[in-house]
């Protein structure tokens, strides 16, 4: 891991900086009810100051983190919000929700949402799946009259578990490559562990979550009526057309993942699929397609489509700022060396085997916020009979500090 700025801080000082920084953010958000964007920004400056970064170095690192995060995740969130708004205004989301609610009872609906989340989470990154699922989750909650947690938690459990445990996601694939493990065995073990994980963390846990956090679906960009219907267009797109639009990025990214596994580098087909399956491009294509299949097909004229797209962005401004500030905080941790030195702090003789394989990615997740580099710390000498379980253990680190921010 590259450290841009030289710091004279010791490992102990960096550990103190990280602890105080995290404590500052949590305290400002929970006790003083300060907006997470400001809390993360202040926490970043606190970490940098304790770690002996100069003011100019702190500003440079924070700005770099904000810029890189907005350029990647921020664009994906914006594109997903546009698709979500078009789904809502065209009535396409109503078509999907009507089908779900009519086929599932209130008892089985959380299980259906868990299955949908897992199906979407198999080929796409968590962030992409999330922006695709949000409008469906909100409308299903409105229409079914169930608590938000009963619908959202199962969907996110399915989405998250598949991302963490099952190839073709980056973490498991990296671990498989470095350990020379068998793809089929790892896939089978991943699914075997994923199923009970989704069941426990999804439909079952959602019962408790609904009691702990009794909230209804927020308006966000879905201005639904008292019956939970959100469409403002004169007509509705067909269910098949709506489903095709929503699943387009899923299919494109699945094609890219399969090509990366089975096709040799340099082949034209793989190059094309890699290009089409790039998350940003896949979502952009889906957004452009949605303006026709969801907009014009439902009777919306150009102005209505343009107004819908414009109305989708202001509600997510706060979310983008929080995500960007999180990227700035992450970059401060990286550039001070905290993200690199946490291994020596956590290194102790007993932490071996599966414990070490889980410890490293969890430390990664807490220190630099990324969930796409799991498995990078595996070594060739780890290629033992437990290689496949280690792939799974090393790939599963969904410790979301961001849930604290969302809760507030």
TrEMBL record:
InterPro entries: Glcn_transporter (IPR003474). It is a multi-pass membrane protein. The chain crosses the membrane at residues 12-30, 36-55, 67-88, 108-141, 186-205, 239-259, 279-297, 309-329. It is found in: Cell membrane. Keywords: Cell membrane, Membrane, Transmembrane, Transmembrane helix, Transport. GO terms for cellular component: plasma membrane. The keyword Chloroplast does not apply. GO terms for molecular function: gluconate transmembrane transporter activity. Belongs to the GntP permease family. This is Gluconate transporter. It comes from Cutibacterium modestum.
